[in-house]
């Protein structure tokens, strides 16, 4: 949706059309930590949500993964299933992977099919991590985030000579007419 030339992200209403239990749980992954204590929204909470969205785009992972709704389980498998189905917090997961210096492992494999964009991806990852700092006063403002993003220069187009065709797995829903040579 665009209002006065400003793009707005409006997924929340659509997500509620899905399974309500999963939709509500998933929306919690975008909430800043301070929102559980204070019901008032703030610009710093919006920065946090943007950071989660950016991490989601870069990793290809949902902001939080919650256990499936109740299903029959045997007593012997409860402990294993609970461990497998534990809540995964995307910002914490990304921080832990980066801390272990496995930064390349964090990116969505679909993004890795483009050559020569690693520096830009790492820079965007750092912006996302700056946005999801747990302390709101340590997060940048959206104006600062915009400036950081604008400073990232992409010297070559990801589609064209730098595109690795052998790794092409575009689904028709993600491809553009340019991808198929149509005008």
UniProtKB/TrEMBL annotation:
Residues of the Protein kinase domain: 1-152
Cell cycle keyword on record: no
Signal peptide start-end: 1-23
Renumbered residue ranges of the record's region Disordered: 157-183
Pfam family membership, one: Pkinase
Molecular functions (GO terms): ATP binding; protein kinase activity
UniProt KW keywords: Signal
Protein's name in the database: Protein kinase domain-containing protein
Organism for this UniProt entry: Brassica carinata (Ethiopian mustard)
